[in-house]
Every structure is written in structure tokens, then in C-alpha cells.
Amino acid sequence: MKLIWNGHSCFTIQSEDGTLVLDPYQDGSVPGLSPLSLTADLVLCSHEHRDHGARETVALTGRTAAFQVDRLDTFHDDSQGSQRGKNTIHILSSQGLRVAHLGDLGCFPTPEQMDRLMGLDALLLPVGGYYTIDAQQAHELVRALRPRVVVPMHYRSDSFGFDVIARLEDFLDLCDHVVRYDGNTLELTCDTPAQTAVLTYQAGK
């Protein structure tokens, strides 16, 4: 399975079961990021904010993706959605691998949801705070869920991201086994070692 980070919280997932895109952002919605022009069999969005729900940036193939997709209803804040609304966690299963994309999670999942998030091969989670859980909360969630691979998203760098959210380093300072990739793609297999995988944003790709 290929995990391709398109910037912010947008990922393309490719496997023998097809291609899907998660949380595409609208052109101009995230400072410093290039416009998206993606192709997939399926688009999934955690919520409808401009930086996560831009389905129009993805050309659909017309094919049917064979991923198993489970959805968990959560919130975009720690006040039962009263500030920013609801958020959907997507759990994808394909080729014997399970990957969860947490969207703009702003609170801890319920105990039942935590149980359903156990045993993940990869966890794509926001770490920047303000709009989502912050670095410390993300670290606590990782310690509780124990996914094999963690891929941070929704953070700020010198060249992209919202000013109000934190830098990636705030999260990495709490992590062990950090692996930095030159590109924006992670090849996930059953043998991929445990790690926090830092993918590199590549403008225009």
C-alpha cells in the first residue's frame, strides 16, 4: 500500500483495491500549498471545511474501490462539536493492512472507538493543535493506540500551514524512532518497521 501525502491532511492511498483520496483542500485555503489536481476511485472527507472537503479537486475514474471503509463519528473540538462541528475518522482496510485517518480530531475518541482503533498498521493524525488535538494529546493517543507507523499531519512549517497551529517539531520532540523521508510517499507493507514517518511535502505533486 502506498501512502502519499499531498500536504496538510490530504493523502492519496493506493493499493491493489484501488485509489482513494482523503481530505483534499481547496485552492488557497492553506497558506503555502499548491493547488491540488488528483485522480482517484473514491474521495473521503472528514468534514466539510474548505481545507478538508474540496471534492472538486479530485477527478473520479468511475471505477469502484474495493477498500473496506469504517467510519467513526467524532468532534472537531473538545466541546461536543459546539465550536467547530463534527469530524469523521476513516479506517481503511486493504491487502491485510489497516490505516486510520483522524481528520481534524479535536477530542479523544470514546473507549469503544479506541478499541476499534487498536491494531493499526498506520495512523494519520493531526498534531498542530488549535483546530485539533495538539502535540501532547497526539502523543498520548499514540501511546494508547500503539499503531505500528505514525504519520503526522496538519501542522505548520516555515513554508506552509496556518500561523495559529504548531510546528511539527513540537510533536517529534515527544517521539521515538523518527524516520524522515526525502519524498512524500511511504510504501507500507506488513514488514514496515515501527516508526514515526515524516513525509516531505512536494509542491505541485
From TrEMBL:
It holds the Pfam family Lactamase_B_3. Coiled coil: none annotated. It comes from the Bacteria. This is MBL fold metallo-hydrolase. It comes from Flintibacter hominis. The lineage of its organism: Bacteria, Bacillati, Bacillota, Clostridia, Eubacteriales.
